[in-house]
Design brief:
homodimer, DNA polymerase, domain 1, 6 strands, 11 helices, 2 domains, about 230 residues
């Protein structure tokens, strides 16, 4: 059982906003921290696209986040941060809170399956997040192992291969239809878990399953029940 | 805290011998199963050396074990095994029992440190072994991540880099002086834990620490105590 992480497992928006608020307050600046988080996240796909298209060599998500952070700090008039503060804020992505159903659900699934990440996050990021959020992963896979970013097929196929499993023996759990469709195209089994607040109360995308998935679950407890865990 | 696995964490000799005995019994053959395990293990260094020297491209330990198995089966007159049996016996290395102090010691260390593997075993092997033996790793690193076999420096440096840590922030725990010396040369901190029965009661090597290590511990409980865990 391999899991998308950002949005599916953890609430990146509230967590990043919390850290942005904290550093802004230290500088006596008022900032729309959720808008900051949204903007930072919005720069993630174009940055990965440059890697996918081969415009730049593979670099980790920490590096892409750091490059994008410069731009967002400028846009939100927070560019007075020093280097140590910027490095710490970049690690906000290592300190993301899980959705409330996640840890108990993973513990149930772990009794029966290998549970791992299939994320675009790099190993250090996912490992630190797991310590912070008590996520009991058996294995950390994804972009850095495959040296390819989802939805490139290599990201899914490389993660299955690292476990010596056929794609058909793997299930991707994700809150994003595009991720699940790419995984299904590689032969993975699929489980959709809606996260209707990932992008805040006005979210319009990924509210419902838009594909013929093996499982559509209401959170990780329901997912574990579907799988008799 | 990064751990060598074969010998340091798990008792490969007894565990492999158990599976060899089982399959030999099914074929009505009597075999010196411990000698079989020793011989299979002895072929491991020369096989890795061919990778290290660049004679063959990087392949996983599962692949090297499988190639070596053919030779050992021939030497021990067990070459009547069919392909399914050979594949299953090769996975004996995924089903290794931990030394008795390991799981409790790791659980203590895990409360305070990231605990991971720095093994020449591939990800699938280490992940399956962890499920079998209930080893609570936070992260699986080592040869397959670095695409280099210990004691090549790239294996240690690549594992530290995957955690975004400097070598000085990492400690290798191992029962083998050569491994610890190579890690120390890369800047790692070091902990020696003697496993005087790894090679059976006649073991002559690695009975004592032969280096200026940060810690010399009597098992993983003592190691955890040294580190105030």
């Amino acid at each position: 059982m391999l899991f998308d992480v950002f949005g599916t497992v953890v609430d990146w928006r509230s967590s990043v906003a919390r850290d942005v608020n904290e550093i802004a307050a230290r500088h006596g600046i008022t900032v729309d921290a959720r808008a900051f988080a949204d903007r930072w996240r919005a720069l993630y796909q174009p940055a990965m696209l440059r890697v996918r298209l081969g415009e730049i060599p593979f670099v980790t998500l920490d590096v892409l986040h750091r490059q994008n952070l410069e731009q967002v700090l400028g846009e939100f008039s927070l560019d007075t941060l020093n280097e140590v503060e910027k490095a710490d804020l970049n690690r906000a992505w290592h300190r993301l809170d899980p959705w409330s159903d996640v840890v108990a659900g993973l513990e149930r699934l772990k009794q029966r399956y290998i549970i791992g990440t299939l994320s675009n996050g790099n190993i250090a990021l996912i490992a630190n997040m797991a310590k912070y959020a008590r996520l009991p992963w058996d294995v950390i896979l994804g972009a850095e192992i495959a040296r390819a970013y989802k939805p490139q097929p290599e990201a899914y196929l490389g993660s299955a291969a690292a476990l010596s499993l056929a794609p058909q023996q793997c299930m991707l759990v994700a809150a994003h239809n595009s991720d699940l469709q790419a995984a299904a195209n590689c032969g993975f089994r699929t489980a959709f878990v809606a996260r209707s607040l990932e992008h805040g109360p006005a979210q319009k995308t990924d509210l419902v399953a838009q594909g013929d998935y093996d499982i559509v679950a209401q959170g990780f407890a329901d997912l574990a029940t579907h799988l008799n865990c």
